[in-house]
Write a structure and sequence with these properties.
There is one protein chain. The chain has 125 residues and is of the alpha/beta class. Helix content is 16%, strand content 36%. Helix 1 packs antiparallel against helix 2. The longest helix is centred in the N-terminal third of the chain and has 12 residues. The chain is globular and about 45 Å long.
């Protein structure tokens, strides 16, 4: 890996019910997710800001939601509480509320999404 490259390049969140997952993430983040067929898979692209790293919701035979394994932290700036307040009423479950990591690194929270994936949030405040 090049010295100034990010370790993360792309991520995919597995979903079993694409439309349900799309609605969940659109609701909690207040975004629009673009749906696209990619061969045997359906992908829903999360917004990319300023050319930064992004990812997608992915549905297909190889994608199996899980609360175990890799943990992806999604950006919840500027106000993590706005995102957290929508999770449970949108079909998710908060596992760990907003918790300070350190004053320098900000805050995190954990939740289970509508598909059963364990996902984290990060914010500076």
């Amino acid at each position: 890996m090049h010295a100034d490259a990010n370790a993360l390049n792309w991520f995919e969140i597995p979903v079993s019910d694409f439309e349900r997952a799309k609605k969940f993430y659109e609701t909690i983040f207040g975004i629009s997710i673009q749906k696209q067929a990619m061969g045997p898979f359906t992908m829903g692209f999360l917004p990319m800001y300023d050319g930064k790293i992004s990812g997608a919701l992915c549905h297909g035979a190889e994608y199996k939601p899980s609360a175990d394994g890799t943990l992806v932290y999604l950006n919840a700036n500027p106000d993590m509480n706005a995102v957290l307040s929508k999770i449970e009423r949108s079909g998710g479950k908060i596992l760990r509320p907003k918790t300070e990591i350190t004053p320098e690194y900000g805050f995190m929270a954990l939740f289970i999404d509508s598909e059963g994936n364990r996902v984290a949030l990060h914010s500076n405040k």
